[in-house]
Predict the 3D structure of the following.
Amino acid sequence: MKHLITALSLGVITWSAQAATYQSVQPQTSRIAFTYHQMGVAMQGQFKRFKAQIHLDTQRPSAAQGSLDIDLASIDTGSAEANTEVVGKDWFNTAQHPQARFVLQSLQDQGAGRYLATGQLRIKDHTRTLQASMRLSPQGLLDGQLVIRRADFGVGVGMWSAFDIVANDITVQFTLQLK
């Protein structure tokens, strides 16, 4: 019985030591990247500018709040020609829709620093509910990913609406340094 009490006490101490409240995101040490397939070849890119707000108490994750605003013109596909193309009317149309916005609706604790986030993503005039699996390290590093379908958001229209050149599924990976 003594060993059981000791083990339970150590578990409570360890759990309490990992409890934290995060109230901001450090964009300079955070990253939003994506992967997609173009003509069957895996490609990578990132968004260089974004703003994020968060309030997360790890003891009460269901009360978490957060939003993420991505400057779509800050896209870096690795190609200057592609960067120019994707900000145009057929893709993001950044002249009329400069930002994508994700707003957290709920956060479910899945144990061991893992969470499932549900929220609304708006790109152009299209809003969809999406889920992202995430992991929070004891150092406040929040890693996760989600898959979006570009057609759901009107991204890649006209001659780009077929998926034979650029695939429909885009995997977004994020690493946010919480503070």
